[in-house]
Automatic annotation (TrEMBL):
It is an enzyme of class 2 (transferase). The keyword ATP-binding applies. SUPFAM superfamilies: ATPase domain of HSP90 chaperone/DNA topoisomerase II/histidine kinase (SSF55874), Homodimeric domain of signal transducing histidine kinase (SSF47384). It comes from the Bacteria. This is histidine kinase. It holds the Pfam family HisKA. Signal peptide: none annotated. InterPro entries: BphY/WalK/GraS-like (IPR050351), HATPase_C_sf (IPR036890), HATPase_dom (IPR003594), His_kinase_dom (IPR005467), HisK_dim/P_dom (IPR003661), HisK_dim/P_sf (IPR036097), Sig_transdc_His_kin-like_C (IPR004358). It comes from Ravibacter arvi.
Length: 342
């Protein structure tokens, strides 16, 4: 039952009237007429006094507070007018409104704190990643300008090193631009039929030299699979596969192996890239898809990575309506898996 001001006043008036009649009934001189008159008088007077006190002194102020909360919510959260229907119990309604409002604000504050922390970390990471190749190239060029240019061997060596650092800077900037476009939704996926088997073989050929240098073997499973047609953006899925396979090679053990498995399901193909390298500890697994996050910072930088590859992979697959998962066990290897529609 809703406890409106009328109902509260009615209940209190009945109680007061009952108490009054009960008290008077113990007096010998009172009769039925007196009891009836006293009951009616006490009921009417207490009803109006109680109703006035509750409505004017309590409920009216509560309704003002509630209207203020509604205005704040309309401005902050764009709540529809249907949610603002008046209720007969403004005390409970106000309590509910305040609870929801405070909870929403608390979540908003927590999100803002997370975003601020992420922004600080991102700016620090970007500045560090940009600074390293720029300072290196700058050092080599200034050394040449200060006199080392006369020595032909030194000149060529320093120019090669400066060029490598500038190439690294170019890759980093391109990855940042690509990631920014993917996150903002500016990049359109050009969907077409893609044979994953042919695509994987092409990538194996491109990465053959890298794999040979580390004595890593590359394999597709099942062995006799010739075709796996999916609907995808060929260029972007190529980018995904290159990143996953090259990572599996770079961070594998010497003499290890990389296996790309393509399994047919009812409406899709499940793709997994597995290595038998050192694996990734649980503390890092939840963060490896973050921008610039590296499990082994020094090793990643030495191998030429920008720290953006897996973040780009995640966003490309999200744009295809799917997601990537990772399972890893220290000392036994890592498996990255995702699905693509047939």
């Amino acid at each position: 039952m809703s406890l409106s001001p009328r109902i509260i006043a009615l209940l209190l008036s009945l109680c007061i009237s009952f108490i009054t009649i009960t008290f008077l009934s113990f007096i010998d001189e009172t009769n039925g007429t007196i009891l009836f008159t006293a009951g009616i008088a006490s009921f009417v007077s207490s009803f109006f006094l109680t109703f006035y006190a509750i409505e004017m002194l309590v409920f009216s102020e509560i309704k003002k507070m509630r209207r203020t909360i509604h205005k704040l919510k309309l401005r902050d959260f764009s709540i529809s007018k249907k949610a603002l229907l008046q209720t007969s119990n403004p005390i409970k309604a106000m309590n509910d409104e305040i609870f929801v409002y405070v909870s929403s604000k608390q979540k908003e504050i927590e999100e803002l704190k997370k975003m601020e922390q992420f922004r600080r970390e991102f700016l620090a990471d970007v500045s560090h990643e940009l600074k390293t190749p720029v300072f290196s190239a700058q050092g080599f060029v200034h050394t040449l300008l200060e006199g080392a240019m006369e020595d032909e061997a030194v000149r060529e060596k320093f120019l090669i090193k400066a060029a490598k650092n500038l190439d690294r800077l170019d890759v980093l900037v391109n990855d940042l631009v690509s990631l920014s476009q993917l996150e903002s939704g500016e990049t359109t996926m050009h969907l077409e039929k893609v044979n994953l088997v042919d695509l994987t073989r092409e990538i194996f050929e491109r990465l053959e030299k890298v794999a040979q240098d580390r004595s890593v073997s590359l394999k597709i499973k099942p062995d006799k699979l010739e075709s796996a047609l999916v609907i995808a953006d060929k260029q972007r899925i190529d980018q995904v596969m290159v990143n996953l396979i090259s990572n599996a090679i770079k961070y594998n053990n010497e003499g290890g192996k990389v296996v790309v498995s393509i399994e047919e399901e009812k409406k899709s193909f499940s793709i997994s890239v597995k290595d038998n390298g050192p694996g990734i500890s649980q503390e890092h697994l939840a963060r490896i898809f973050e921008r610039f996050y590296r499990v082994d910072k020094s090793r990643s930088r030495d191998s030429g990575g920008t720290g953006l590859g897996l973040a780009i992979v995640k966003h490309i697959l999200n744009a295809h309506g799917t997601s990537i998962t990772v399972m890893s066990q220290v000392g036994k290897g890592t498996v990255f898996s995702f699905k693509l529609a047939k």
